[in-house]
Design brief:
50% of the residues lie in helices and 14% in strands. The chain is built from 8 helices and 7 strands; from the N terminus they run αααβββαβαβααββα. The strands form 3 sheets. Strands 1-2-3 form a 3-stranded antiparallel β-sheet. A two-stranded parallel sheet has the order 4-5. A hairpin with a 2-residue loop joins strand 6 and strand 7. Helix 1 crosses helix 4, helix 3 runs antiparallel to helix 4 and helix 4 packs parallel to helix 5. The chain is globular, with a radius of gyration of 20 Å. The termini are far apart.
Amino acid sequence: MDPFLVEFGTYYERIKTPVSLDRLRNSINDKDLNNEIAILNHKILCGKYVQEEGEDYLVMDGGRKISIANSSSGQQETLPLAIILGRIAFLKPQIGGSSIYIEEPEAHIFPAAQRDMIELIATVYNSRKDNLQFLLTTHSPYILTAFNNLLQAGILAINASEEKIKNISCYVPVSRFLDPNELTVYSLSDGYCQSILDSETGLIDTNIIDEVSNELAIQFDQLLDIEP
């Protein structure tokens, strides 16, 4: 069995209990970060994680409680990641820093939840950016678009007035702004690796993001051109 998977599973089982999570969060005097992570986790999971008598549940809006075993594949996939990300934000910095590898965070979840997952990752990163790095792989244009929105917020905030930052934060909270100098994005295709960050705009190349959508649109237009 892959040793990384064993480590991930063991770590998750050790820290997932609400008592452990609450103790850790209460040890850090940052209520805003606590609340933001809780809100994002709720949005990603479409409910609140609870544990009763050793069993894992999600409490949905309206109070309905669902066993994790009976929840959707997306909820089962994202629950461990959401919990571990929430814990990482409050851990003491490690000597030499920490690297977090996440493969396809979009797996089995809707586009809105993909956006929320990226915003959670950005929030956690910004809380410990001097001691933490993330490495992600993805096939999702929604993931790239979510990153672009946070990058654009960060770009607009450079040397901005307090009033302008306040306006930006109406759409993207300050805790999720991303600095384009702290992000690299590469495309792997046909055995080649190339950067897809535009050197002028600081954003991910929209041609890469929209490539498949454009192909589908062209195909649809070609079909429309055929007389019935």
